[in-house]
Amino acid sequence: MQTEARVGVVVEGSQRALSxxxxxxxxxxxxxxxxxxxxxxxxxxxxxxxxxxxxALAKTCTAPLARLTILFQxxxxxxxxxxxxxxxxxxxxxxxxxxxxxxAFWKGNLVTIxxxxxxxxxxxxxxxxYKKLLRKVPGLENHGxxxxxxxxxxxFGGGLAGITAATATYPLDLVRTRLAAQTNVMYYKGIWHAxxxxxxxxxxxxxxxxLGATLLGVGPNIAISFSVYETLRSFCQSNWPSDSxxxxxxxxxxxxxxxxxxxxxPLDLVRRRKQLEGAGGRARVYTTGLFGMFRHIVRTERLRGLYxxxxxxxxxxxxxxxxxxxxxxxLKELLADISxxx
Length: 342
Description:
The chain has 342 residues and is mostly helical. The chain has a single domain (50-341), classed as Mitochondrial carrier fold (Alpha/alpha barrel), CATH 1.50.40.10. The protein is built from 14 helices and no strands. Mean pLDDT is 76; it is low at 1-40.
């Protein structure tokens, strides 16, 4: 993503250059437009830092809802369908507090941060790099004057970035899921214990269980998220240029999260269940491949089973993605200002 740089020299210089041939009103409008079009350029380390902090902060703020989502997603693996219908978000949250304590809402959050820092860093950084590469593709060079080409760049850039980040940090994502899915029996005692136990009991490839479903889901998810965010943000800045960038980024990020989660939630559910296959020494539930898992879930839990946990996911994704985009954009602005003044 790209952020407007808050560099006063650029605005003032544009005003002086335009004032000799235009009135004060047109000068202000042109200067404001130029300032909005000017993008901040920060170094690689600063960009990675902004992306990592943004992702970690967003995940920490919404960790309780993230854990509820995971618990609902995996209930169908070892529970009767009749029992599942009676469980509400409030009942599950009350059970966690009474049986595990309030801090249990953040169970697995340390590994979430350990996963999210590099994952989000690589995600945002790779997105910027892929955008530059895609803009060199024949037919996409004049992206600024072609909305469809611009949307194509955002979509495929986001998808490739998501796949790159997910592949690079997948074992931590799997460990995070298993730690968050634990209730009363603590089979895994921490990040390193989980990594060693999984490698010993399930082999090194056990750390990559569900990677196929993850890549199928994360590519479209991030692609939709980035493209919807960029499109909405450009629309808002064109129509309401005086509005707060913080609020615009927060609102556009939240809407992009809803769109991407709705489109890819079934794949995310299958990914979570695949990650938990064989966890804690339990027998395998699904003996078929990815599409066989879809058929099994639809047959045993009906179509609604593919969207089990979508409600807490919505509650989570609205603030989470909004905070992530908003924090990333703000940190990029701050780091750009620091590097400029240094």
